[in-house]
Predict the structure.
Amino acid sequence: MYEFLYPVICYYYLALESSAINRVSMSDNRNEFHIAPMQCYTNAPLRKLCHILSPSSVQWTEMEKVDDLYPKKEQYPDDYLVGALEKRLGSSDIYDEESRLVLQLGSNDPERIEVCVENILKHYNFREINVNCGCPSIESGGAATYGASLMKDASLTGQLVSSIEKALSGSKCLDFRDAPKISVKCRIAVFDHLDNMRPLHDGDYGFLMNYIRTIRDAGAQHVVLHARPAILSGLSPVKNRKNDVVTLNYSFVERIASEFPDLKVTLNGGIKSFSQLKSLQKRSSSTKISSFMAGRWILRRPLDLMGIEQMMKDQNEYFPIEEGFRQETYRNCAKNAIEEYTNYAIEMARLIKDRKSFTIAELCLPLYLIAEQLRDDYNCESGDENAAIDDGGGAIEAKVDGDEEEPLLNYESVESIYDTMQNSVKQIEACAKGSGGKNSKKKSRARINESSSPNFKRLTSSFTSIVGTKVANKWKRNRSEL
């Protein structure tokens, strides 16, 4: 007679268990999932939503350039670092220690990175300090002086790792048991130009093995391997992660994991579905892969984190097998997550005048990403299965055979969640007007559908009245490139 309470019980039980898992030693991480850092996306508001949806998933910052966080003191005031950290993480009094982040840094200067880490740890603690050796983007400073170009200099990368270790060991702000681990995120190979790219061979693997051995010996305990070569020039950052241009090679990652059993190895690259993640997860016991990372999948389909949370645990222990109960559980989890995030966004928006940490656009983007996922799923369920999908950016994305699977949420669940999304957008719009945001003086142009029939195109378009046409169009273009 109390069946209606079961989804609620499942939701809170999952949250409690996930909090406990976060406190487990890093050595017990066979089913760990990392949400990849993505430039222009991975800020505190998006991390908040991801943490609500999947408390056990490991969160990362964007790559932060050391020179941006901690410029030379003769040019900037002493408190510049604190302001830079607050802008990216929120003030230290609202920083969530329970979901400790991996801080990713970009630098090629061992002395500067040591001083930067020493001073950062006076204000914030992290799960890991990561050195970015995998980003090929010139725009983020990668191809020019660091990022993936560091793979060409194993010795310098080792010096960066050693400097971070020195900063950690010398910090008086940390308990030894609480000290961050040191990790490196890199590719499996690096080529200077697209014209130099060729099929990988054993010589390339030997190069990678030497690189990994160097950073391990310098003090790194964890390596995240993006299973593609990096192309430093002649290829855009988007195409650097497209499989039809730069081919995935999981075997290199699996061999590294087997040959370095004392090193935690996370596989990154090309993971974009439950079936693919499940297949890799099953193989991990024999391949020695410790954990998995995905980024674009989460941005295109943030609500799939509910399913990932389930997959990282024993499926039957947390959710009943029956489809009806499973859908009701996911539906309630999604609604609760949207409502919780909306309350957070409104609270943060009210602080904009004082702290200026997050803009209205930054707070709205996670909800926009949810709305676009729901729109995709609704169109898929209600229309032709083989039809192309309007991605909301004016581009038409054709479905690829073998690259689709049943959505996490069925048609009825998506319809039910639509009402929650409508209410959230209305609340955010009302808050934006009252906070003195960019469009607060404009007359509301929101066109949220009030009828019983969901209109997700209109729902996603309603964000324009809150953030402005320029920002909304940028969101659409960026999503079309994911």
User: Anything to note?
Assistant: Residues 92 and 123 are 7 Å apart (CA to CA). The beta strands are 32-35, 60-65, 102-106, 128-133, 181-193, 222-233, 264-268, 291-294, 389-390, 396-397. The radius of gyration is 22 Å. Confidence is low (pLDDT under 50) at residues 6-28, 139-143, 384-402.
